[in-house]
Amino acid sequence: MRYFVLLLLFFISFQLLAQTKTELENEKAKLEKQISITSELIRKNNESKNLSLEQLQLINSQVRAQQALIDNITASVEATKEEIANKRARINSLKEELQQLKDEYAQMIYFAYLTRSPEMKLMYIFSSSSMTQAFQRMKYIQEYSAIRRRQADKIIEMQAEIEQNIAELEDARAEKVALLKELEVKKIQLDQQKKEQEDIADDLKDREKELKSQLRKQQQQANKLKGQIQAIISKEIEESRKNNAAENNNTNNNDNKTEFVLSPEEQRISNTFEGNKGRLPWPVPQGIIIGTFGEHPHPVLAGIKVKNNGIDISVPSGENARSVFEGKVSGIIGLPNGNKAIIIRHGEYLTVYSNITSVKVQKDQQVTAKQVLGPVGKNDNNQYVLHFEVWHEKTLQNPQYWISK
Question: What is the CATH number assigned to the segment(s) 2-205?
Fold first, then answer.
């Protein structure tokens, strides 16, 4: 019974450990992919020799990802240590059980020796204290050979299992050594990235006047875009009431409310969009978030905050923006740099894709999920950056809560 309990506990801990290691490996793969994309974007930026805030934000993103990777590898080292400890405990348990089997087998051999002749078997049976015991001894002798063979098979199987566990233990030890070496390399890389981060930040601080002027311009453009988006949303709400209010006979919607009145098909799209919160595809096939939603301290200018109505995604040259969900193009807005912002409505929700060059869709066009909207263009700092927003009616949402992790 004791061995059964130990075995059960071992398998439970093994399953939990395997699950944890798989999760860590999946997370590591994602982080390594993110670091690879970021490194390529940084390399392209370095080629342009145009020091920019976006470059610093890419370095910041890489530093965060590198630190997360180090934490991941550290956790993997601890998981491997636990695996080694479990393997050692399992081997010791198996060895104890094997010794017990061998002792029992030795007693069987000794009994076989004592009862090797028919006369000895009869004497063993007739020396019973009762007919019941005599019958049990007779049955035992009849089945004895099979029992002894099974015992021998168990010993062979257990020896093989011990050897397998020893081999797995050696693999785990080798894995631990490799992880520790990798950890040291990643720490060195992190130190180098932090040094680069500090150098870029120092250089940008010397351009404080230029950065403040750039920030004012960006905030003005963001406010103007926000006003244009709100105007389009108001128009969409008004049209939805006019087109659907009579059909739906929805008395809860009136002129004092800024709520859409949806057709059955629009309601389906709206509900499905909302139901996919946290699972929507990214608005680009690949990229790195360099600007997050909301109000944050400026990465360089002390005491100054910046407000972002969405997220900014740095992308490779030639990357296309794509719709995150099915819907209808509500509007296309011209930007000061000559690029465009595309607004797509998904029932009560709207998504905005800003800084698109050759637009591949038209106003009022129905689009599908992942449909190409057009290439991402360069911003004022000559960087390929997509600005992405999510709205619920007239309320801004954090896009990172909506797209997949």
Answer: 1.10.287
